[in-house]
Amino acid sequence: MRNKCVKPLNDIEIKLSVAVEKLEQADRIDIIEQVEGAVDSSFRELMPLSRYPAWKDIELDRYMLDAAPRFRGMAVWWETEKPLPAVSGEFRLPGALGLLRQKPDPVIGSMRDRFQRDFVAGLRFIDHSFASSRGIKTCIRLSSESSSFELWHNVLEDIEVPPYPPGYLRLTLTYEEYLEQLSLTKGLHGWQYLFTDLDFFSGPYTGLLDNVRTGLEVFTEHFPDEDYSLLQRQMEERS
């Protein structure tokens, strides 16, 4: 591994590092930006959560405490080169301390009502793709009622699922499952749509899966040792 830290990598850190290495080694895939910070503190090492006001009533499960990524920051932005079809991806993960110190999204001021303001106030991003100008992110929703976080994907498309603010889609994934799929998709733009209830069969959203569909075809050829069967099934159900 490229990481020169003293702490050994945990399982998901290894998978994410290997995902980036595969992109680097693949023919006709250009790495535009890549960052892998040193392994920093785990969530357990940053306890008690009472030191972080928004988290003081939050209970973390064992995975988040001990098995979540600890990189001080990790990111990759990539695109295919000709003659491959145009496909792109990006992911950017904050470290545990960065996540705990996050402030609410300033967009909270533009919300329509108290429900939407409270909803946005409880979101903290765990992944985003701002460098490639996609302006999308995936967030956990802080709640004192459960140690299993809801995941919400925030997109620029004018998608409305009342009573939630426009552009927010609930993902049918846990935090752990999200990271596993992220390591597999390598941040392929749009992969999160495969784990939403959005209707892609008609209306304005039919083209949102184009990058994912083409990307899975490229990945199947370039990374034959990877198992994309779940993603392909999700695609078939939505195409």
UniProtKB/TrEMBL annotation:
It comes from the Bacteria. This is Uncharacterized protein. It comes from Actinoplanes hulinensis.
